């Protein structure tokens, strides 16, 4: 499988970790999306408490888990978040989080489309 230019997931990397098992790929991505969503909520909570170490810890985890599943756009955003320091404006953090949420929606759409290919009737060649 080749990387599609606008794909939210690196298909080659995902296929490599799943050994080509599309159902497993879908499952991995669903768990990933759930985890990312929870971690973003933790970051938002940490922002309200001004808990910078929690923000950085969650950003680091997001960067790693995104790299593992091939969600490279989210990995890049998590890396940007991780590089910020406590003197950064909270608005910048929120902008990055908003970008992440949009990219997560792209991954969810990708999951939906990939799931549809599994349930589509297969053509029988004669």
Please give a structural write-up:
By secondary structure, this protein is mainly alpha-helical. It contains 5 helices and no strands. The relative contact order is 0.15. Helix content is 75%, strand content 0%. The model has no long low-confidence stretch (mean pLDDT 88). Helix 3 (52-69) packs antiparallel against helix 4 (72-83). The radius of gyration is 17 Å and the shape is elongated.
SSE topology sketch:
Layout lengths: L10 H8 L3 H27 L3 H18 L2 H12 L6 H30 L7
What is the tally of beta strands? 0
Oligomerization state: single chain
**What's the helix count?**
5
Mean pLDDT: 88
Q: Kindly report how far apart the N and C termini lie.
A: 26 Å
């Amino acid at each position: 499988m080749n990387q599609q230019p606008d794909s939210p997931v690196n298909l080659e990397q995902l296929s490599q970790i799943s050994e080509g098992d599309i159902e497993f790929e879908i499952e991995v991505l669903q768990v990933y999306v759930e985890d990312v969503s929870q971690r973003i909520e933790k970051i938002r909570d940490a922002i309200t408490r001004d808990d910078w170490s929690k923000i950085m810890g969650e950003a680091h985890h997001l960067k790693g888990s995104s790299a593992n599943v091939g969600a490279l756009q989210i990995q890049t955003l998590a890396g940007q978040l991780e590089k910020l320091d406590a003197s950064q404006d909270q608005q910048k953090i929120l902008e990055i989080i908003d970008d992440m949420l949009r990219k997560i929606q792209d991954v969810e759409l990708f999951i939906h489309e990939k799931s549809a290919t599994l349930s589509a009737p297969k053509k029988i060649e004669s």
